[in-house]
Amino acid sequence: MINTLYQIIRTIRPRQWLKNLAIFAAPILQGVVLKHDVLISCVLAFIAFTLLACGTYILNDLVDAPKDRKHPVKSNRPIASGKLSINLALILMAAFYFLGTLISFSFVGSYFGILGISYILLQLSYSFYLRNIIIMDAMAVSAGFILRVFAGGVASDTSISSWLVLTTIGLSLLLAFGKRRSEKTLLSEYEESETRTTLLHYPEALLDSMISMSASFCMIAYSVYAFQTSPVLMGPEISRLLPSILKSPKWMMITIPLVLYGVARYLYIIYEKKEGESPERVLLSDSPLLLTVLIWGVTVFIIRYSL
Q1: pLDDT number for residue 193
Q2: Are 96 and 116 in contact (CB under 8 A)?
Q3: 134, 176, 251, 267 - which has most CB atoms within 10 Å?
Q4: Which pLDDT band, with edges at 50, 70 and 90, does 27 fall under?
Q5: What is the CA radius of gyration of the chain?
Q6: Domains of the chain by range and CATH?
Q7: Predicted pLDDT of residue 276
């Protein structure tokens, strides 16, 4: 029983639940997340999307099991290794999807529920079809992040800046193509055709170009977002202490160097450390990158809620 529970926990990948924190992006950046109703709604939305994601991880492992058995790392996954039975995995997948959908419609809202259903359909399309099409596989992964950001906006009843959406697109594409680049590096000593055939159609030059484009796109979009959405008002006490050129500063622009460093650090991890196959593991294990994200979060919070 304990071993089965352990295998279930491994399959639903708690580390990857970090992706669902994108739910809080819109309300935090709009400065409304501390409102009681908004916070409760966002927490419920996070729980709902986490349940849906758990169902998706089980779905992916079920579909990938035959190929995972030939993978140098993924062969140790519970379903691929036979430590978690297929029948139990199917029951759990259905349960997670049902609970996630129930919470979405019953406790968050119908529009959020529709986005939850859209996420499920996207993951089904990815698992059975899109993952086998070059570039489209990365775009499908990117769409999952975008849905999370929109879901957070719907759950908190806040508007979302177009530049924030574009930033999310750039960042998610960077993570997706970076993941493919790292997978190709990892599998260079193995028979790629026996693990993921899509990697055969990804020339390294193409991946490098897409990574470079996505990184540039992300940094430019975020810079414009920071410029356009910065709060320009402050208390008279602070204003009296500043020179005239800083009477109405674009405070969010302070965070731009942090984003530039974070993206550059991730590129270093991909190309020099030859990691990146698991972005969430990279975030938690690379101290400079994790510290940068934390400083960025604290800085944004201070700007949005203190000035």
Answers
A1: 45
A2: no
A3: 176
A4: very high
A5: 21
A6: 1-158 (1.10.357.140)
A7: 62
HSE (side-chain half, CA atoms, 13 Å) at 12 = 21
Q: Is the dihedral of CA 49, 52, 54, 60 positive or negative?
A: negative
Structural contact between residues 69 and 75, judged by C-beta atoms closer than 8 angstroms: yes
| Confidence band for 153, pLDDT divided at 50, 70 and 90 | very high
The string of DSSP letters for 144-198 reads HHHHHHHHHHHHHT----HHHHHHHHHHHHHHHHHHHHHHHHHGGGS-GGGT-GG
168, 161 contact by CB (below 8 A): no
258 token code pair: 């942090």
Q: Of 81, 116, 66, 69, which is closest to residue 11 (Cα–Cα)?
A: 81
- Give the three-state DSSP class for 18: helix
For residue 276, the surrounding DSSP H or E stretch is none
What's at 94, amino acid-wise? A
